[in-house]
Each structure stands twice: as C-alpha cells, then as structure tokens.
Amino acid sequence: RVRIEGIEVKDPSFGMDAIWIPAQNEAEAESNGYVVVNPESVLATHLSQLLHKYAGQLIGQDD
Fold first, then answer.
1. pLDDT, mean of residues 25-37
2. pTM exceeds 0.85 for this model
3. SS3 letters for 5-23?
4. Using an 8 Å Cβ cutoff, are 10 and 17 in contact?
5. Are the CB atoms for 15 and 26 separated by under 8 Å?
6. Interacting residues of 51 by C-beta distance below 8 A, sequence separation 6+
7. Among 45, 36, 39, which Cα is nearest to 4's?
C-alpha cells in the first residue's frame, strides 16, 4: 500500500489507525486502497457513540 501523507490518529470509536488527509487527496487515497470517510460522517459516528455510552446519564427516569 502506498503511504498517504496526512495526520496520523487513532479513531476513538473503533480503535483503528486513521489518517486525516486534505479533501484534494481523497481520490488518490481511494485509488491506493484506503477507505475514505468524510468529516461529517466521522463526527456523526463519534456523537452517536458518545450518546449511546452516556445515555443513562443524559436521560434518567426523572426526565
């Protein structure tokens, strides 16, 4: 696999290695076998995971 330049991170929802890349490098990353996810989907996934994890604290029986 060709190395793509970007900011290396660990996805907190799934514990997977990930790389933040500029939008203009999306096609190059996909053509080299990378799965590209747009920032909005990443944010939605993380918010969903947080809501699921803390639902009991956010909404109680008194609410």
1. 95
2. no
3. CCEEEECCCCCCEEEECCH
4. yes
5. no
6. 58
7. 36
> Do residues 30 and 49 make contact, with C-beta atoms less than 8 angstroms apart?
no
8 beta partners: 19
Query: What b/e string do you get for 12-47 counting C-beta neighbours within 10 Å, with b at 16 or more?
Result: eeeeeebeebeeebeeebeeeebeeeeeeeeeeeee
Side chain identity, residue 48 = S
Cβ–Cβ under 8 Å, residues 49 and 13: yes
Beta carbons within 10 angstroms of residue 7's beta carbon: 9
**pLDDT interval class at 1 (50, 70, 90):** confident
